């Protein structure tokens, strides 16, 4: 049965929101019966798509939402990332929270309802699945488990989030329809005590009357592990397999209801060193027809717009090696990373419009991206010269990043060999590299041990009396997903970064150690070193450059560009102090989305931290290009690595 009444009820919600005393609309409600979601008592077919406000520059929230509505969607699914909301224990970022509540208000203004997916675990190819790193240091805390320290931290987060979203629920005339419990928990475990506890926290935070649902994979064990009595059970992935599995394995009436594919994948993520093929649009059309037409069910396109893992936002997978996600979260989605519509958008829109009902707005015009002529990046100061000895921590054995109270970035581990006899052997930086270790002997670059390979470089090191060994360890992003169905055990969302265990040369344990945390939450004061013109460093180097914009434009989207760091090997980029993210010549990502929102009239300052300046092809330059540069290239650090 095709539902044609949809738009009428959507507009009545909007009318109710606009006028405090609606005369004809029923009192706002969102519920469901065995076959249908019901908005204000009438059938509501979910034509959903996911975008996460924390992956989109806030000034562009309206643009992305308007394009989603124009595609024929009526509902936006959205994750919230706990680590950005509560970056330190008890430290609530009101600005971050405000950008989420304003996103939800704008969604409503653009004619969209919202399904909230607050986790507390969200996966999402995000750093530690959205968990803040400080959870690792809370005594006795075990994430995603029926564990008092974890539930107490989660309760605090959910209560704070709920306070920010007060008044935005359907009952109050707002757009939030329902809230997801945890995220694909059945892939991870089957402790129903834990998921029931999360259900209770969500009911306390968002109200007993709030519709809750779970979203799991299409297997019997994932559905049985993740479903919660009294909570509507839904699936993600292949809708045909998923709906069949829901019908077969969800037998408890209190979990049954209308069918929803809570994540219908409109393609996939990117990770460093991996190609991905292009999206099979015809298969998508057939699946969407099946869900919306044959089944009269609901779906959410994951992602309708992926956006960007700015800064150190990306997560990783453990597959016997680290598979780290790129800064770009383009995902091959219908609205691309820069917010422009793609051919896939228009193909899927043609299908969605058959089910959207009512009047769907026209597709907003795509503004072309801009170009920035090449500008020089000049050596400013080596990274190690910016370290402040007052922040150094000494200890006999290496401390992890988390032991040091550090969430993201790099940690430098230094050891000086003091005994008269030399020591030599294969260098082992702890239980394994976590994640990418740059090695220096007496400040000269000696190689890389990189956990993105199952078999990284074997580096034999000899230390004579007085030699210093430095290990610069990069956190490439904490693992965000572990499935009890995979072949890679012992890595259950392990948060630890830096050096875990002891560093050995052959059979010799090296000690003691000096640690320099380099979180790069703020850039160091880059006083250009007096000797900068003669820098030819084999150490990580800050470089600076600038370009001038002299045509002010009221629409920042006209300034959007992709920034390529030419001659760079691996590093991070900041523009006007905003941390765009990581670049890596290995690819596939060869340019970073630079939103016009961070640019300004006059001089724009670019800072680059290049980790391997001596491997670059000579002078480094920045350049803004109209089309993203995207290709997998060789890895000069580990040509023979697998
Ligand atoms: C659920 O609601 C819809 C719309 O009002 C109605 O057509 C359908 O019969 C209801 N289903 C059940 C099982 O009550
Ligand atoms: C990636 O794809 C390109 C183009 O199809 C191909 O030349 C290259 O070998 C691939 N690289 C990897 C690592 O698969
Ligand atoms: C879906 O519906 C179409 C049109 O009614 C029909 O041709 C097709 O066979 C159906 N497919 C399935 C899998 O039921
Ligand atoms: C390092 O040594 C191991 C064990 O001999 C080997 O399996 C691996 O391939 C080596 N790595 C490289 C990059 O050669
Ligand atoms: C590191 O070595 C010390 C001294 O042998 C030992 O006490 C400690 O347990 C080791 N740490 C790990 C994690 O193995
Ligand atoms: C910098 O060092 C590299 C390798 O050590 C060398 O080949 C190059 O000529 C040097 N460049 C300058 C400008 O000194």
TrEMBL record:
It comes from the Eukaryota. Residues 540-604 form the Beta-galactosidase galactose-binding domain. InterPro entries: B-gal_1-like, BetaGal1-like_ABD1, BetaGal_gal-bd, Galactose-bd-like_sf, GH, Gly_Hdrlase_35_cat, Glyco_hydro_35_CS, Glycoside_Hdrlase_35. It comes from Paraconiothyrium brasiliense. This is Beta-galactosidase. Residues 37-352 form the Glycoside hydrolase 35 catalytic domain. It is an enzyme of class 3 (hydrolase). Gene3D superfamilies: Galactose-binding domain-like, Glycosidases. Belongs to the glycosyl hydrolase 35 family. It catalyses: Hydrolysis of terminal non-reducing beta-D-galactose residues in beta-D-galactosides. Its EC number is 3.2.1.23. Residues 398-518 form the Beta-galactosidase 1-like first all-beta domain. Pfam families: BetaGal_ABD_1, BetaGal_gal-bd, Glyco_hydro_35. Keywords: Glycosidase, Hydrolase, Signal. PROSITE patterns: GLYCOSYL_HYDROL_F35. Residues 1-18 form the signal peptide.
């Amino acid at each position: 049965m095709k539902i044609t009444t949809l738009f009428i009820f959507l507009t009545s919600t909007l009318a109710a929101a606009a006028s405090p005393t609606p005369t004809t609309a029923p009192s706002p409600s969102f519920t469901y019966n065995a076959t249908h979601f019901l908005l204000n008592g009438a059938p509501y077919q979910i034509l959903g798509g996911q975008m996460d406000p924390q992956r989109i520059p806030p000034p562009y929230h309206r643009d992305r939402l308007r394009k989603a509505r124009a595609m024929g969607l009526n509902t936006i699914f959205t994750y919230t990332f706990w680590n950005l909301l509560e970056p330190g224990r008890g430290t609530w970022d009101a600005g971050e929270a405000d950008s989420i509540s304003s996103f939800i208000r704008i969604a409503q203004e653009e004619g969209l309802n919202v399904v909230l997916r607050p986790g507390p675990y969200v996966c999402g190819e995000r750093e530690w699945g959205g968990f803040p790193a400080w959870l690792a240091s809370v005594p006795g805390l075990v994430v995603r488990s029926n564990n008092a320290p974890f539930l107490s931290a989660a309760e605090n987060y959910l209560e704070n989030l709920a306070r920010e979203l007060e008044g935005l629920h359907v009952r109050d005339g707002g757009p939030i329809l329902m809230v997801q419990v945890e995220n694909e928990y059945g892939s991870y475990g089957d402790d129903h005590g834990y998921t029931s506890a999360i259900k209770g926290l969500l009911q306390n935070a968002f109200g007993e009357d709030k519709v809750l649902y779970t979203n799991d994979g299409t297997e019997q064990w994932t559905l049985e592990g993740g479903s919660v009595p009294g909570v509507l059970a839904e699936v993600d992935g292949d809708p045909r397999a998923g709906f069949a599995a829901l019908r077969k394995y969800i037998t408890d009436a209190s979990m049954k209801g209308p069918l929803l594919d809570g994540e219908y994948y409109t393609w996939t993520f990117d990770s460093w060193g991996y190609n991905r093929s292009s999206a099979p649009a015809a298969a998508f059309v057939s699946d969407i027809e099946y869900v919306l037409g044959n089944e009269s069910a609901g779906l959410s396109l994951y992602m309708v717009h992926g956006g960007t893992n700015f800064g150190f936002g990306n997560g990783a997978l453990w597959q016997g090696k680290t598979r780290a996600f790129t800064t770009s979260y383009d995902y091959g989605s219908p609205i691309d990373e820069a917010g422009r519509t793609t051919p896939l958008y228009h193909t899927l829109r043609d299908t969605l419009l058959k089910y959207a009902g009512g009047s769907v707005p026209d597709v907003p015009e795509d503004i072309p991206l801009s170009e920035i002529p090449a500008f020089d990046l000049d050596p400013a100061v080596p990274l190690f010269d910016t370290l402040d000895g007052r922040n150094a921590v000494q200890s006999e054995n290496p401390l992890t990043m988390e032991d040091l109270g550090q969430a993201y970035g790099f940690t430098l581990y230094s050891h000086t060999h003091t005994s008269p006899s030399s020591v030599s052997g294969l260098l082992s930086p702890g239980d394994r590299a976590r994640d990418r270790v740059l090695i220096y002997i007496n400040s000269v670059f000696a190689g890389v041990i990189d956990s993105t390979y199952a078999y990284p470089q074997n580096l034999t090191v000899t230390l004579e009396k007085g030699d210093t060994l430095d290990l610069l360890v990069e956190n490439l992003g904490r693992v965000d997903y572990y499935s009890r169905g995979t072949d890679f055990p012992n890595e259950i969302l392990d948060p630890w970064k830096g050096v875990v265990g002891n560093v050995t040369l052959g059979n010799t344990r090296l000690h003691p150690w000096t640690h320099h945390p380099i979180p790069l939450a703020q850039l160091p004061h880059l006083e250009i070193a007096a000797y900068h013109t003669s820098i030819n460093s084999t150490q990580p180097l800050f470089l600076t450059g600038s370009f001038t914009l002299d045509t002010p434009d009221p629409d920042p989207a006209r300034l959007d560009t992709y920034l390529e760091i030419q001659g760079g090997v691996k590093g991070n980029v900041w523009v006007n102090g905003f941390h765009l993210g990581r670049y890596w010549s290995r690819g596939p990502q060869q340019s970073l989305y630079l939103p016009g929102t961070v640019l300004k009239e006059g001089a724009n300052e670019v800072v680059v931290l290049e980790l391997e300046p001596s491997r670059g092809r000579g002078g480094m330059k920045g350049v803004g290009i109209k089309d993203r540069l995207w290709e997998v290239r060789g890895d000069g650090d580990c040509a023979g690595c697998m």
